[in-house]
Amino acid sequence: MSVRELGLPARAPAGWLPDRVTIWEVGARDGLQNEQVALGVEAKIEFLDRLAAAGLTVLEATSFVSPKWVPQLADAEELLAGLARRPGVRYPVLVPNERGLDRALAAGCTEIAIFGSATETFARRNLNSTVDGQFELFEPVVRRALDAGVEVRAYLSMCFGDPWEGVVDVEQVVRVSRRLLDLGCFQLSLGDTIGVATAGQVERLLGALGEAGVGTEALAVHFHDTYGQALTNTLAALRCGVSTVDSSAGGLGGCPYAESATGNLATEDLVWLLDGLGVEHGVDLDALVSTSTWLAERLGRPSPSRVVRALSK
Amino acid sequence: MSVRELGLPARAPAGWLPDRVTIWEVGARDGLQNEQVALGVEAKIEFLDRLAAAGLTVLEATSFVSPKWVPQLADAEELLAGLARRPGVRYPVLVPNERGLDRALAAGCTEIAIFGSATETFARRNLNSTVDGQFELFEPVVRRALDAGVEVRAYLSMCFGDPWEGVVDVEQVVRVSRRLLDLGCFQLSLGDTIGVATAGQVERLLGALGEAGVGTEALAVHFHDTYGQALTNTLAALRCGVSTVDSSAGGLGGCPYAESATGNLATEDLVWLLDGLGVEHGVDLDALVSTSTWLAERLGRPSPSRVVRALSK
């Protein structure tokens, strides 16, 4: 058989996997912000509580982005006021700027996430800034958060492909990643925002980050399933040593019947994989499927998750 | 980082991939036989011709199973009589027994596929036989086919999970696999008929087959996407040295809105992965997506392939 080597070496030894994966559940934030139907605040609170009851321990609850941009999450304060926080469960929130941080601190949040762009075009369109300029935005947010005892995660968008710029340069992603972690963020989530990446790209980026001294313990992965690659990319990342994976219950975040189906990796499909691999995750799959089925009814459409469709009657 | 080893070692060196993958396109057979809408013979012929024009070189064209069981493919003779075979394209057909072989030979077929079961329950339900008993059925079919200069592929169903028996014993699969190849079949396609397998199981089975002297050059993989694992399993198999993959254009073979979505791995999603990995396949993705979009309109439902949905306007 003729074979060939693939890019840079993976980080972890071949065939290895983490004993346990932390699922960073983004359904209530990244999922709902992209759904056409806006849920009421009571339904969101019930959704979060059911996710916690199903065993998920990191629930990104909402976003303090301006309601002008994300009307679906305009009820962030009301949601956090009504949410009964469970012991052992973290409820990070997305924060775009100092104004968002003020709101998050006022709402009693103890963990936030900022979001940066790996590409100039997306930095301009999403943040009205540049790749360098965005750090002026982030620096006071992270500093003030850390001073207040609030932990900060960073998202990095467009780590693999960009709809305007095409394939994204690995060295550019490494540079921005290092700067985000250097700000004091405890974790960096590498995002395939438009869902175009494939497994080889994932391995190459993780390899390049490792060469640059960014270990997988500081990394998470965030895949969208636009081209059906999300779970395959996730396995590639686990094999490289990543042990935190972003996903959304039921694959929320993109209508499967719309032209552009850009839903997140479905948490259920991830759990099915982890169960098969014998990797611990702490989630009760039946309870999760039942939650996603309930939510899909509220949203008026079937879940795009294959596992949800297969297991729900 | 705490890590652990996964089952048996993979067959090929870590991180390696085949230079080229042969896509065994099963849409016209495994796909259409599971669709609720029966296509007319002209549409099937156009479908096959468009698949060939898109660069696919192995097209499983139809089945000589009794029309009583698979009414969707009752027009096998008419289809083969009307099909303009392209040079360089193979058109294997499925054959269940000697009666089916007679029909295939009469239709001028030069390549057939038989299908066996790895489990007792499925052997009884699908073949009205047993795991041992099925070989009495296959032996004269394969012998007569080879005598007539017809090449024979074998499918093995339920290699990972069985709806009645649960997880399938690896040693049982290895035993049946060896017997099928010993009959004289040139290739064995390992089927996850109900789509429950995960990557670790795939690696363990391929490892066990290797230990038993069954090299990956005689193997193909055949995954269904019921639980969203088909592409991830495929990558695991490629990494182990497999270079023939079964898939169906547009993910034909299971309605995404039915309770049980059991479609095959979508050829387009596989092509997207292979393109990203730099593995050759010979398929024109745009022409394939356009074919699947055309067929989905005929079938009256959107394609379950993520790539088809993302690329079709």
Automatic annotation (TrEMBL), chains A, B:
BP GO annotations: ketone body biosynthetic process; L-leucine catabolic process
Signal sequence segment: none
Key words, A-Z: Lyase, Metal-binding
Domain Pyruvate carboxyltransferase: 21-289
Top-level taxon in the UniProt lineage: Bacteria
A Pfam family reported for this protein in Swiss-Prot or TrEMBL: HMGL-like
Keyword Metal-binding: yes
Single GO term (MF): hydroxymethylglutaryl-CoA lyase activity
Family: Belongs to the HMG-CoA lyase family.
Protein name: Hydroxymethylglutaryl-CoA lyase
Origin species: Amycolatopsis taiwanensis
